[in-house]
Specification:
The complex is a heterotrimer of chains A (about 200), B (about 350) and C (about 250). By secondary structure, chain A is an alpha/beta fold. Chain A contains 6 helices and 6 strands. Chain A has one domain: Pyruvate-ferredoxin oxidoreductase, PFOR, domain III (Pyruvate-ferredoxin Oxidoreductase, domain 3). Chain A is about 35% helix and about 20% strand. Chain C is globular and about 50 Å long. Classes of the chains: A alpha/beta (about 200), B alpha/beta (about 350), C alpha/beta (about 250).
């Protein structure tokens, strides 16, 4: 991952908090003193069962906020993988919600990170925080935002929220981050095969 | 410096309007600008302002006409089909010389088109839009920060020139979020305009009239030349005068062989293209008009002497390209690349066009 | 000698351009008298329509806006919201208010804007040369209904007062005429009621004045009121359709 700029596409179905997840990353980047941009899906990208948004975190001023070749795709459901898998930059990363997407080999030139985000969220008692599990996991890989940045940015993202709500969100960040630390993710080259089931 | 906040473009316009002293908003719902009225319907009551959801765009623009006539800083916003409906009122407002702020978050057309971002209202915006011999000042931001800054500037320009000012945005700029440093609040006094209806500082014998009717042919001719002179003053200020730096952004143009031209969100993509060109050894530069009327023709006149060719990129079938051609005036070839219907051209396809032009084999 | 009749202070000295027998001048004067009596001249703002009374602003010595066709209630809304202490009235004809501006008048009334709308209903477009209006009578011959208005293709005369009275927000809706001295005094009283209600911040008031257009009706000025009485009043019945504050009882 480049240390200067990180281009991320986040995708899932409506209700998974995709746009908010993007906002979490952008707000965190802003708090960490980076240049950031966030745009919801537009044009032909709006077709076909996914809600998605693009986020750029950058050391330098952002020229185009459009993400045509993402460094990372965070996919929360199957159609998102189908839609964005092939767009990921060689050497980039596909981070996916393995609770809803079964383990397959997608491409052999990208890093694959599987996080059972929905299950982790269920364990925490709120399936709606699966998106934030992914945010925690992402901070493990990012060179521009840290786990501490995420934690610091959270209150600003949820003004007026109850303490319990903040706590469960923080727990989601932590679980996501720790899951990666436990190295339960795949990394490296895999036998290339067609992603089945889509 | 104030703290940065992450805001959507449409919301940034709303907050900036409030900070600029605007306390009156009249609008009608249409996608993709709905965040703006939603924001102001919440925000204006907090500052004793007025938000009215009108029965139509036609009514909304006429409420703007009334509120502007009464001396207020007032705004309306819409998206392409709604702006078409507002043109009648805009023509009256321009004729009666009432300051106001208009926002068009442009979507795909013609007709109902779609709700995806587009730049196909350039002609409508820069040629007046409604009937008669008039102009609106047209500002074209390319970031959320500029959405805020140009809103504040727009209110100032509107008052200074007693003219409607149009902020020409698009669905991407309206919906995207970026960090914004909000401007300082302005204390605006509704009794600061001596010509306004209900102005409280009048002599007893005086009365004020806001009207665009001049039934006598000599009177209308005189009025139209008066408007024309005002537009000339504006043109001078934005080309060579006080606002010349406000009107246009140039990037790496001095040694450029090919000049890319685009406004709004396209200019951001073109900046990426220029960076990629430079890495490949192609001497590319960018001209971004920030004011679309009066058009910064002088920049093109100058660059036509040093550059070999121009490539205009728009989210339309080619509208601003006509102004570039008029400004370059045949001295160098002007090419066009566009996507329309809601598709935003990618940096790669534009780069491909540049390649074709600089390496024609 | 005591002066008992003079130009109201709120009227300008400009002579009317209206045709002989037209009621515009009479209604203008009544409005000006009301403005004088309520002592609101320095805070009254009028909104002129498109139509014969497009130049209404020439005859009143108060601030004025000249609105696009039919949009006067929207313009008045904007003015009143900025200057709630002012007294804002629109003055509109039947083409302006009952055709192109139907949406604007209905919604200004429905929002209960604290303004007064004066509606001059003479069943015809005057300024454009006598075309059929939404209030033209069945069988009435005009430039654009040369065979007479046919309900089958052009519908029936629209009753604005009755329509507006069905809304909850308006406080005062009345139809009057100036065809004789007694009715003229009633019209004056209706205008006084409407402007007083606005002054007191009560809400939207609507005064429809059934009026003449001898020129486009093809009548002699002296016959116009007779024609109005015989033909229009049976269709447009005089009366008050809404009076939530009971101003007519007091």
């Amino acid at each position: 991952m480049s240390s200067k700029v990180e281009r991320i596409i986040l995708a899932g179905f409506g209700g998974q908090g995709i746009l908010f997840l993007g906002k979490v990353l952008a707000e965190t980047g802003m708090h960490a003193g980076k240049h950031v941009s966030w745009i919801p899906s537009y044009g032909p990208e709006m077709r076909g069962g996914t809600a998605n948004c693009s986020v750029i975190l950058s050391e330098n001023e952002i020229a185009s906020p459009m993400v045509t070749v993402p460094d990372t795709v965070i996919a929360m459901n199957r159609p998102s993988v189908a839609k964005f898998n092939l767009k990921i930059k060689a050497g980039g990363m596909l981070m996916y919600n393995s609770s809803l997407i079964e383990r397959q080999e997608f491409r052999d030139d990208i890093r694959l990170v599987e996080i059972p985000a929905s299950e982790i969220a269920e364990e925490l008692g709120n399936p709606r925080v699966a998106n934030l599990v992914m945010a925690g996991a992402y901070s493990k890989f990012s060179k521009l935002i840290t786990f501490e940045d995420l934690v610091a940015a959270l209150p600003g993202l949820m003004p007026g929220s109850k303490k319990e709500m903040l706590e469960i969100n923080l727990a989601a960040f932590k679980k996501g981050f720790d899951f990666v630390e436990e190295k339960k993710y795949m990394f490296g080259r895999y036998v290339y095969s067609v992603f089945k089931g889509i | 410096m104030a703290e940065k906040v992450l805001m959507k473009g449409n919301e940034a316009i709303g907050e900036a309007a409030v900070l600029a002293g605007c306390r009156y908003y009249f609008g009608y719902p249409i996608t993709p600008q709905s965040e703006l009225p939603a924001y102001l319907s919440k925000r204006l009551p907090e500052v004793d302002g007025v938000f009215v959801q009108a029965e139509s765009e036609v009514a909304a623009i006429n409420m703007v006409y009334g509120a502007g006539s009464a001396g207020a800083r007032v705004m309306t916003s819409s998206s392409s089909p709604g702006i078409s409906l507002k043109q009648e009122g805009i023509s009256y407002i321009a004729g009666a010389e009432i300051p106001c702020m208009l926002v068009n978050v442009v979507r795909g057309g013609p007709g109902l088109g779609n709700i995806a971002p587009a730049q196909s209202d350039y002609w409508q915006a820069t040629r007046g839009g409604g009937h008669g011999d008039y102009r609106t000042l047209v500002l074209a931001p390319n970031s959320v920060q500029e959405m805020a800054d140009m809103t504040v500037a727009g209110f100032e320009f509107a008052d200074r020139f007693r003219n409607p000012v149009l902020l020409l945005s698009d669905g991407v700029l309206g919906q995207m979020m970026e960090p914004v440093t909000l401007p300082d609040p302005v204390d605006y006094d509704v009794n600061s305009k001596k010509w306004a209806l209900g102005y409280n500082g009048k002599e007893k014998s005086e009365r004020n009239l806001c009207s665009s009717i001049f039934l006598d042919v000599d009177e209308l001719e005189e009025h139209n030349w008066h408007l024309y002179q005002k537009y000339q003053v504006m043109t001078d200020l934005f080309s060579t005068g006080e606002y010349k730096d406000f009107a246009v952004e140039e990037h790496l143009c001095d040694d450029a062989e090919i000049i890319l031209v685009g406004y709004g969100i396209i200019s951001r993509i073109l900046k990426t293209v220029v960076e990629k060109c430079r890495k490949r050894g192609i001497k590319a530069g960018l001209v971004r008009p920030k004011v679309l009327w009066p058009y910064p023709a002088q920049v093109f006149e100058r660059l036509a002497k040093t550059a070999n060719q121009f490539l205009v990129v728009e989210m339309s079938c080619g509208q601003m390209v006509e102004d570039v051609k008029l400004s370059v005036n045949g001295k160098k070839p002007v090419y066009f690349f566009g996507r329309t219907g809601g598709t935003i051209p990618s940096d790669f396809e534009i780069l491909n066009e540049v390649d074709k032009l600089v390496r024609p084999d | 000698m005591k002066k008992i009749f003079s130009r109201p202070e709120s009227m300008s000295k400009k002579p009317f351009h209206y045709c002989p027998g037209c009621d515009h001048g009479v209604v203008h004067r009544l409005i000006a008298e009301v403005i004088d009596e309520l002592e609101i001249k320095n805070r009254t703002i009028g909104v002129a329509p498109v139509g014969c009374s497009v130049f209404a602003y020439d005859y009143f010595d108060v601030d004025f806006n000249q609105a696009p066709h039919g949009r006067a209630p929207a313009v008045a809304t904007g003015i009143k919201r900025v200057r709630p202490d002012s007294i804002v009235f629109t003055y509109q004809g039947d083409g302006d208010l009952a055709a192109i501006g139907t949406a604007e008048i209905i919604h200004a009334a429905n929002r209960g804007e604290n303004i007064t709308a004066v509606f001059i209903n003479n069943a015809i477009y005057g300024m454009t040369g006598g075309q059929m209006a939404p209030t033209s009578l069945i069988g009435m011959k005009t430039q654009t209904s040369p065979y007479g208005r046919d309900a089958a293709t052009a519908g029936h005369p629209i009753h604005m007062s009755e329509m507006i009275a069905t809304l909850e927000s308006p406080v005062y809706v009345t139809r009057v005429t100036v065809n004789n001295p007694a009715n003229l005094m009633k019209t004056k009283k209706a205008l006084l009621n409407a402007f007083t209600l606005q002054k007191e911040g009560k809400g939207f008031s609507f005064v429809e004045v059934v009026s003449t257009c001898p020129t486009n009706w093809g009548k002699k000025p002296t016959d116009a009121h007779k024609w109005l009485t015989e033909n229009m009043l049976p269709v447009f019945k005089l009366g008050t359709f809404k009076d939530t504050q009971g101003v007519e009882k007091s």
